[in-house]
Design goal:
two-stranded antiparallel ribbon, HTH luxR-type domain-containing protein, mainly alpha, 2 domains, Arc Repressor Mutant, subunit A, Tscrpt_reg_LuxR_C, 5 helices, 2 strands, Sig_transdc_resp-reg_C-effctor
Length: about 120
């Protein structure tokens, strides 16, 4: 998250076992670099209204349940334990979801999920 041209905060996705930690960047060059990368992606992004509606058809109920857990804020590591699946089974289901939808990343999947007009189940 870039706060202004002088401060950026980066969530910790590197150090295992470190809970709610991260980095506060205030080096001007580092903040400028992060801002330039953000702006590059922003300038090439597709607007929400240009994407079109998502449909419910391609996914199983188990896959929908995994996506609902991710949407609720649980990590991929936590989802398995919450719904009685191994981490490997969750990873396999998410790979199947990405393939079924034709996406490369979970960011794309969750963007699609956010637009899906599907009734919430269980």
């Amino acid at each position: 998250m870039i706060i202004d041209r002088q401060h950026a905060f980066v969530d910790n996705h590197v150090i295992k076992g470190e809970g709610n930690s991260g980095w506060h960047l205030f080096d001007r060059a580092a903040v400028a670099w992060a801002r330039s990368i953000f702006e590059m992606f922003w300038d090439h992004a597709t607007r929400w209204q240009d994407i079109g509606p998502a449909t419910c058809d391609p996914l199983s109920e188990r896959q929908w349940r995994i996506l609902r857990e991710l949407d609720a804020g649980y990590s991929q590591q936590q989802v398995g334990g919450r719904i009685g699946l191994s981490r490997r089974a969750v990873d396999k289901e998410l790979a199947t979801v990405r393939e079924a939808l034709g996406f490369k990343t979970m960011y794309q999947v969750m963007s699609w999920y956010g637009r899906a007009q599907c009734p919430p189940v269980g």
